[in-house]
Design a protein that fits this description.
By secondary structure, the protein is α/β, with parallel strands linked by helices. It has one domain: Amidase signature (AS) enzymes. Helices cover 36% and strands 17% of the residues. An 11-stranded mixed β-sheet has the order 1-3-2-4-6-5-12-13-9-7-8, with helices on both faces. Helix 4 runs parallel beside helix 5. The longest helix has 27 residues. The chain is globular.
């Protein structure tokens, strides 16, 4: 059930909030031992006192986001026993809108990875095929939505951590323009790249969550999420950055081309563009993420070095070796690349590309062959999402069908900085013409 549907039923008193919550908690009890979507479940729900647009709606929270009086582990043994005394800003906003929190979701340890393989709390599994990864680092949130354990989920996205699991699990994943949702009360991975965003069953649900969590007048999303209307595709200029797409898994290419054909039939104008400097973007992002993560974890590593998982520990050690001059140079390059990137939107309204170049790989797979190219799974999943964190642009992944193995495929729409309303309006229109996935 979507947030929109649930809110209508609750308003009409066709269902009671207690019934809705219990149905979600029952789904958690039945599935969580296998799927490992949740680290901590709130047995009676954590109920917001507000009477807003989310009143009675069950929502899950990524376990790097503080909920007052509830454990925050960040998916790590390092923080076992830590209980925050205040809510994160985004949690306060949800509670003020009346949301009921169902629990804290599993993630790649400290959000520093994209597979959601977690040595401390178990590997998060894809509900479509349980021998496949969920993607991450917000994988628990994506699984909770796809498997009916929550109506929506709050996650974070530093290089694709919302959009990647959304694509692999067949849900909507929206990363707003950098800074539109407060990060106060969220454990950082990379403070200059992290964005708080949403995993939902529909684009309209993402709009509703944005409408109650965006900060500042510049957000330009109406307080009532239902007021955003679909943007007519006729005449919309869609940039297709084909110079950076290859290699693609054949079924991903097939779904991408079918999506473009559908948009063109609706009157959209497809315009091939060049997305330049992708390698430079990846290099700059890599330096920034590793350096900022190592800076945050330096003190924790002194006392808890052995408690970190092997992959995260190794990445943090790499970050400690990055000189300050290299970090500053990466930030200078970032500013230049961001300015260059924004020029694209003088020619097009949106970029359209696959969210990931592969569908969900099997658990513990370290390398994949895409076309004729062998690459590590991390690179394959990040390649088409990470540039847009570096430049701060809004991006959304929406389901666009499935592979022949019935694994979801995501289509990614990217807008100009602060053009979130246009992006979301266009996503509503795409969602209408793209094939529906159903449920796992």
């Amino acid at each position: 059930m979507t947030v929109w549907e649930a809110s209508k039923l609750l308003a009409a008193r066709s269902i009671h909030a207690e019934e809705l919550l219990e149905s979600q908690l029952d789904n958690i009890r039945r599935q969580n031992d296998e799927l490992r979507a949740f680290i901590t479940v709130f047995p009676g729900g954590e109920r917001g006192s507000g009477r807003g647009s989310l009143r009675g709606i069950p929502i899950s929270i990524k376990d790097i986001i503080h909920v007052k009086g509830k454990p925050t582990t960040a998916g790590s043994k390092v923080l076992l026993g830590y209980v925050p005394r205040v809510d994160a800003a985004v949690v306060r906003a949800l509670k003020e809108a009346g949301a009921t929190l169902t629990g804290k979701t599993n993630l790649h340890e400290f959000a520093f990875g994209v597979t959601n393989l977690n040595p401390h709390f178990g590997d998060c599994r894809n509900p479509w095929k349980k021998d496949r990864i969920s993607g991450g680092s917000s994988g628990g949130g994506a699984v909770s939505v796809a498997a009916g354990m929550s109506c929506a989920a709050i996650g974070s996205d530093t290089a694709g951590s919302i959009r990647i699991p959304a694509s692999l699990c067949g849900v909507v994943g929206y990363k707003p323009t950098y800074g539109l949702v407060s990060r106060d009360g969220v454990i950082p991975l990379s403070w200059s790249l992290d964005s708080i965003g949403f995993l939902t069953k529909s684009v309209r649900d993402a709009i509703i969550l944005a409408s109650v969590t965006f900060t500042g007048a510049t957000a330009r999303v109406p307080r009532n999420g239902g007021r955003i209307r679909p943007l007519e595709l006729r005449g919309l200029r869609l940039g297709t950055p084909r110079n950076v797409l290859e290699p693609l898994e054949e079924d991903v290419r097939r779904r991408y081309e079918a999506s473009l054909n559908m948009a063109e039939k609706e009157g959209a104008r497809l315009m091939e563009i060049q997305l330049e400097n992708l390698q430079a973007m990846a290099a700059a992002r890599n330096i920034i993420v590793h350096a900022e993560a190592a800076s945050y974890h330096r003190e924790l590593m002194r006392d808890h070095f052995a408690d970190y998982g092997k992959d995260v520990r190794e990445r943090l050690l790499q970050g400690l070796l990055i000189p300050a001059t290299t970090y500053l140079a990466a930030q200078r390059v970032r500013r230049k690349l961001a300015a260059s990137f924004r020029q694209i939107f003088k020619k097009v309204d949106l970029l359209v590309l696959p969210t990931t170049c592969i569908s969900a790989p099997r658990l513990k797979t370290s390398r994949v062959v895409v076309g004729n190219t062998s690459m590590d799974v991390r690179t394959a999943l990040l390649r088409l999402t990470e540039p847009f964190n570096l430049v701060g642009a809004p991006a959304i992944s929406i389901p666009c069908g499935a592979t022949r193995e019935i694994l979801p495929v995501g289509l990614q729409l990217v807008g100009d900085v602060m053009a979130d309303q246009k992006l979301l309006s266009a996503a509503l229109s795409f969602e209408k013409v793209l094939p529906r996935l159903g449920v796992p």
